[in-house]
Every structure is written in structure tokens, then in C-alpha cells.
Amino acid sequence: MQPTDNQKWRAVTECDAAYDGRFFYAVRTVGVYCRPSCKSRTPLRKNVCFFDGAEAAQAAGFRPCKRCRPDLADFAPTAQLAEQVKALLDARCREKASLKELLRSPAASPNHLCAVFKRQYGLPPGAYRSRLRAQYAAQQLAQTEEPIAQIALDTGFDSLSAFCGFFKKQHGATPGNYRKEQRR
């Protein structure tokens, strides 16, 4: 069942993504059409018209919004941003740089990137980075003869005591005890 004009207008004012794909709205004064979830400034109701499909909006002379990209079926900018942060953390998790330094980006603030990442993956980027570091350290302890101090440095820690405290919190054992348990 197609939503009524009042339901459509409410979806537009609330940026309700549940209505994406069910209809599009166009703003006469600027000549663009958008998804209901578009985060652009809410237009005046008198300037809005609704369309059942993107093709109908284009046929009426409206161009796609550059913010919500209603012309792209699978456009999900926040998911893409979260994936970029994840790829960055995967590649650079063992660097000594702070999380804020790693997430410095012209695309968005570190706080915004953290919020987007947490919404997408269910945990903050700092916790994800810690998980990656702990996995790397555990693998190195179990599979190499590398000194624990070197593994601490390779994992991105400046001090052995900070590494040992971190590792014990993550794995419930000190690095030395963990290595012994893995060798049995």
C-alpha cells in the first residue's frame, strides 16, 4: 500500500529511511529530487511534490540530489565511510599514532567517523583496534620466538608494562604465561 501524502511529508521531515525506495520527493524551487531520508534542510511543504519513482521525477525535469544520490540504487555513504575506517584500522592498527591522528580526514571529523563506525559495526573504533592488536600479539606469541618486548613494540606499544597490562586484560593471562600455554 502506497503511503498518503501526509505520511510522505512526515517521512521527509523525519528523514525516515524506512520510506527510501517507496517514493521520492522533489523541491520545485531548487529543481532536485531526493530520497525521504535525505539530510538536506527540510523544504517548505508548498514547494514539495512526490513521485513514485526516480524516473518519474526525472521525467518531470528534476535532477538527482548530490547529497542523497537518489539515482544510485545502493548508495550508502555512511556504510562506505565505516568501511573506509575499518580498512584504515586493519592496515594501520599497530601504529603508535593515536586513534584521533589515524582518523584525521578531510571527509569528516574523528568524532563523526567514530560514531559512524560504531553504528555500522557495533563497537567503537578504539575497541576494534584493540581487538586487532590483541589478535596480532597472541599470534606472534604463539607462533614465533620473538622476545615479548619486541612483540610489544611491533604491536604499537612504547612500554612493556603497558603491553603486558593490555594483553592480560584482553586474554586473561600475561604474555609469558600465554606463550607457555600455547606451547603445551
Explain what this protein looks like in three dimensions.
It contains nine helices and four strands, in the order αβββαβααααααα. The N and C termini lie far apart (64 Å). It has helices at 5-13, 54-59, 77-92, 99-102, 110-121, 125-143, 148-155, 160-171, 175-183; strands at residues 24-27, 32-34, 48-51, 63-64. A four-stranded mixed sheet has the order 3-1-2-4. α6 packs antiparallel against α7 (148-155) and α6 (125-143) crosses α9. The chain has two domains: 11-64, DNA Methylphosphotriester Repair Domain; 77-183, Arc Repressor Mutant, subunit A, CATH 1.10.10.60. It is α+β, with helices and mostly antiparallel strands and 184 residues long.
Key features of this structure:
elongated, DNA Methylphosphotriester Repair Domain, 4 strands, alpha+beta, 184 residues, single chain, four-stranded mixed beta sheet, 9 helices, 2 domains, 7% strand, 52% helix, Arc Repressor Mutant, subunit A
